[in-house]
Amino acid sequence: MSAQEDRAHVSRPEDARHSNHRIADRAERFRFVSRVPMLCECSDPDCQRLFLIELAAYRKVPPGCFLTVPGHSVDEHEPTTRTDEYWQHASGISSLRAP
Ligand SMILES: [Zn+2]
Questions:
Q1: How far away, in angstroms, is 74 Cα from ligand 1 center?
Q2: 56 Cβ contact partners less than 8 Å away, ≥ 6 residues apart
Q3: How confident is the model at residue 98 (pLDDT cuts 50, 70, 90)?
Q4: CA of 99 to the centre of ligand 1 (A)
Q5: What is the dihedral sign for C-alpha 88, 68, 90, 26?
Q6: Distance 3 CA to ligand 1 centre (A)
Q7: How far is ligand 1, taken at its centre, from the CA of residue 51, in Å?
Q8: Quick one: which of 4, 38, 39, 92 has the most CB atoms within 10 Å?
Q9: Average pLDDT over residues 35-63
Q10: Which of 42, 37, 40 shows the shortest CA–CA distance to 23?
Protein backbone atom coordinates (compact mmCIF):
# COMPACT_ATOMS: atom_id res chain seq x y z
CA MET A 1 0.00 0.00 0.00
CA SER A 2 1.38 3.40 -0.95
CA ALA A 3 1.38 6.52 1.19
CA GLN A 4 -0.99 8.06 -1.34
CA GLU A 5 -3.62 5.37 -0.73
CA ASP A 6 -3.25 5.98 2.99
CA ARG A 7 -4.08 9.64 2.57
CA ALA A 8 -7.27 8.83 0.67
CA HIS A 9 -8.98 7.89 3.94
CA VAL A 10 -8.74 11.48 5.16
CA SER A 11 -11.08 14.08 3.68
CA ARG A 12 -9.53 17.03 1.93
CA PRO A 13 -10.58 19.62 4.58
CA GLU A 14 -9.17 17.44 7.37
CA ASP A 15 -5.96 16.97 5.43
CA ALA A 16 -5.56 20.74 4.95
CA ARG A 17 -6.41 21.30 8.62
CA HIS A 18 -3.57 18.91 9.51
CA SER A 19 -1.08 20.94 7.48
CA ASN A 20 -2.36 24.18 9.00
CA HIS A 21 -1.81 22.84 12.53
CA ARG A 22 1.82 22.26 11.63
CA ILE A 23 2.07 25.79 10.20
CA ALA A 24 0.53 27.25 13.39
CA ASP A 25 2.92 25.27 15.61
CA ARG A 26 5.89 26.47 13.60
CA ALA A 27 4.66 30.08 13.60
CA GLU A 28 4.28 29.90 17.37
CA ARG A 29 7.80 28.60 17.79
CA PHE A 30 9.18 31.50 15.75
CA ARG A 31 6.93 33.95 17.65
CA PHE A 32 5.01 35.22 14.65
CA VAL A 33 3.07 38.31 15.68
CA SER A 34 1.48 39.13 12.34
CA ARG A 35 -0.91 37.06 10.28
CA VAL A 36 0.08 33.59 9.13
CA PRO A 37 -0.64 32.15 5.64
CA MET A 38 -2.83 29.04 5.88
CA LEU A 39 -4.06 26.53 3.31
CA CYS A 40 -7.67 26.86 2.22
CA GLU A 41 -9.58 23.99 3.87
CA CYS A 42 -12.36 23.73 1.26
CA SER A 43 -13.54 20.43 -0.27
CA ASP A 44 -11.92 21.05 -3.66
CA PRO A 45 -8.97 18.61 -3.87
CA ASP A 46 -7.25 20.86 -6.43
CA CYS A 47 -7.52 24.07 -4.38
CA GLN A 48 -4.13 25.54 -3.51
CA ARG A 49 -5.24 28.97 -2.33
CA LEU A 50 -3.91 30.57 0.84
CA PHE A 51 -5.53 32.99 3.27
CA LEU A 52 -4.08 35.09 6.09
CA ILE A 53 -5.19 34.77 9.69
CA GLU A 54 -3.84 35.88 13.04
CA LEU A 55 -2.54 32.99 15.10
CA ALA A 56 -4.78 33.90 18.05
CA ALA A 57 -7.86 33.83 15.80
CA TYR A 58 -6.81 30.51 14.29
CA ARG A 59 -6.41 28.95 17.74
CA LYS A 60 -9.98 30.01 18.63
CA VAL A 61 -11.60 28.08 15.76
CA PRO A 62 -13.76 25.37 17.38
CA PRO A 63 -13.14 21.70 16.52
CA GLY A 64 -15.19 20.59 13.52
CA CYS A 65 -15.03 24.02 11.89
CA PHE A 66 -13.00 24.73 8.78
CA LEU A 67 -11.47 27.87 7.30
CA THR A 68 -11.38 28.76 3.61
CA VAL A 69 -10.66 31.72 1.39
CA PRO A 70 -13.87 33.76 0.88
CA GLY A 71 -16.35 32.06 -1.46
CA HIS A 72 -15.01 28.49 -1.16
CA SER A 73 -17.21 25.81 0.39
CA VAL A 74 -16.86 22.77 2.64
CA ASP A 75 -19.14 19.74 2.12
CA GLU A 76 -21.99 19.59 4.67
CA HIS A 77 -20.83 22.83 6.28
CA GLU A 78 -22.10 26.39 6.00
CA PRO A 79 -20.20 29.66 6.40
CA THR A 80 -20.83 31.15 9.85
CA THR A 81 -18.21 33.89 9.91
CA ARG A 82 -17.23 35.95 6.89
CA THR A 83 -14.22 38.25 6.98
CA ASP A 84 -12.34 39.90 4.11
CA GLU A 85 -9.52 37.37 4.51
CA TYR A 86 -11.30 34.09 5.25
CA TRP A 87 -14.62 32.37 5.92
CA GLN A 88 -15.27 30.02 8.82
CA HIS A 89 -17.58 27.07 8.15
CA ALA A 90 -19.52 25.00 10.70
CA SER A 91 -21.76 21.96 10.35
CA GLY A 92 -25.36 21.70 11.53
CA ILE A 93 -25.90 25.44 11.46
CA SER A 94 -29.66 25.11 10.91
CA SER A 95 -30.12 23.80 14.48
CA LEU A 96 -28.48 26.95 15.81
CA ARG A 97 -30.96 29.29 14.13
CA ALA A 98 -33.28 31.21 16.44
CA PRO A 99 -36.95 30.09 16.20
ZN1 LIG B 1 -10.41 26.46 -1.46
A1: 8
A2: none
A3: very low
A4: 32
A5: negative
A6: 23
A7: 9
A8: 38
A9: 95
A10: 37
CA of 39 to the centre of ligand 1 (A): 8
Q: Is the pLDDT of residue 8 over 70?
A: no
pTM as predicted: 0.77
Alpha carbon distance, N-terminus to C-terminus of the chain: 50
**Is the pLDDT higher at 20 or at 2?**
20
For residue 48, give every residue at least 6 positions away whose Cβ sits within 8 Å of its Cβ, in sequence order, or none.
39, 40
Tell me the one-letter amino acid at 68. T
Q: Express each pLDDT in 64-97 by its tens digit.
A: 899 999 999 999 999 999 999 999 999 865 545 4
